[in-house]
Amino acid sequence: MADEKALRFILGDQLSRGLSSLEDARPDTDVIFMAEVMEEATSVRHHKKKIAFLFSAMRHFAEDLRDEGFTVDYLCLDARSNPGDFGSALAEAVQRHDATRVVMTEPSEMRVLEAAESWREELDVDLDILADTRFLAGHEDFVSWATNGDGGQPKSLRMEYFYREMRRRTGYLMDDGEPAGGDWNYDAENRKALPDSIRVPDRPEFAPDRSRAR
Amino acid sequence: MMELVADRFDGHFGDLEPFDYPVTAKDAKAYLDWFVAEALPCFGDWQDAMKQGEPLLFHSHLSTLINCGLLDPRECCEKAEQAYRDGKAPLNAVEGFIRQIIGWREFIRGVYWLKMPDYADSNALEATRGLPGFFWTGETQMNCLGQAISETRSNAYAHHIQRLMVIGNFCLIAGIDPKQVQEWFLIVYSDAYEWVEMPNVVGMAPVRRLRIRGLKALCGLGCLHQQDERLLRLLPVRREAEKWREGLPLQLSLLEFPVREREGSEEEPPHGPDHGVAWQDEEGTAGGGAKRFRAVFRRPRNEGMGRIRVRLDQLQPLEARVAVLADDDVVMDRDPKRAGGLDDQLGHLDIGA
Questions:
Q1: Which of A168, B11, B111, B231 has the fewest C-beta atoms under 10 angstroms from its C-beta?
Q2: Residue B110: which of A142, A156, A204 has the nearest Cβ?
């Protein structure tokens, strides 16, 4: 569609270039929308470092997309026009950009998914919620595994069996259809006592930069 | 950003600075590469260890980056596998790392969406105690807890063993309301989102829920320090006490747990040796908390609840010093004064090593 303009709404835990809602994004027509809102930052009283991390990472992600040529509408927490919640912020962004639809990847939490369903009711344009393909197992995959494929009552859920299934599906550490080394799980070897002489490697430090200080 | 957070979220928990964690996709990749080269080779061997003053050891510290999207879980697995294929990291380390990502992480997310929304209110053991005040200060004489919580306050991070075996276990045996525990985890950890922490907390707190989580991890109730799952034997506890005095209150408080759980169970407690032998393996399907509990502790045959009583009686002098955890009069809540009282009582511990 020549005059389509999608608003692509990216949440704070969706900072992936391969995100489903960005897959067919077009820099020439689409607008990417991100928002820091008090509603999320204070849904519980998150650790200060957690908030600083997430907002910083969001701002950098926005910068990276701008470097690619995208238009990014980024609502800062202390912007005077910040309404404080996703729903209002999104509705205003749709109007501001005259968007014809909104595209987002499914939120990771039920609380936000339910909110998104309500935005769908309130917005004048369509809201597409796409699967989060960053997870290796989709919802249907898990339900199918959990119910022996019949969608009925879940069986007893054991991580180990699910894990083996995932190993087979991904092919990670598999040799000719068999687990590398002959065993699926080497946890028994992972309980050694720490020798007193152990040297723990120094971690790299990533100093706060301009963007974070901004 | 630091000014913004310092200004707007001043009253929130945790230290804002120093801040040295990656916040860009590029730095996140560099951190992953560092981990694979420097820490992954040793990650497996000492995955379950703790060391005073070493908050990260050989743990990847990548969960925050994966959960917010800066790192792709597939890329993490592929780089780790490549290290194994190149002979740079052993299989036990690489397998353990990959299992965390394609196993636990995906499993937890699946369970969350399968069980929600009722999952949020799960509280199979009807644990109702408030969170102790020291969860916000780290000021407790239970050293392993104090360390884990202080490091959490500094780093918004604690590794798996600290979260599950120290903090999680304390909440379990102390009977802390899982809703409060959930909220605490969600607040304090930078990698925590509801989908991550709820199955971990709910699955770990009520024993009955263990059925869906792979019981193994919770066997750690007893084997954290002694690697001997027969927790309730007197000698290993004493021996451990000598090795790690500060760990003792948590260890000892486990001793009162079976009795409390038995009393709290709707199920008729087993009488006599015929019932007492019914310990189960991880495949067991018993629904009752008491039976499930026996599975957790892998009690040897012929050591039923009655015998436990006897053992506890034998331990009375020691147990008395941690009776605070069994004492319903001591309400642990967010009031620092009350928590101080708790600490005082634990401070009276005098373990002759």
A1: B11
A2: A142
Contact A78 B81 (CB under 8 A): no
The contacts of residue A118 (CB under 8 Å, 6+ apart) are A87
Three-state SS at A76: coil
Q: What is the pLDDT along chain A (214 residues), one digit of tens a residue?
A: 557 899 999 999 999 999 999 999 999 999 999 999 999 989 999 999 999 999 999 999 999 999 999 999 999 999 999 999 999 999 999 999 999 999 999 999 999 999 999 999 999 999 999 999 999 999 999 999 998 877 777 777 788 899 999 999 999 999 999 999 999 999 888 878 788 888 999 999 998 765 544 4
CA distances from residue B151 to A84, A168, B143, B242 in whole angstroms, order as listed? 32, 37, 12, 25
Long-range own/partner contacts, residues B108-111 (CB < 8 A, 24 or more apart): B108/B195, B108/B196, B108/B199, B108/B200, B109/A108, B109/A135, B109/A137, B109/A142, B109/B195, B109/B196, B110/A137, B110/A139, B110/A142, B110/A143, B110/A145, B110/A146, B110/A162, B111/A157, B111/B199, B111/B203, B111/B212
For residue B178, give how far its alpha carbon lies from the nearest alpha carbon of chain A (Å).
15
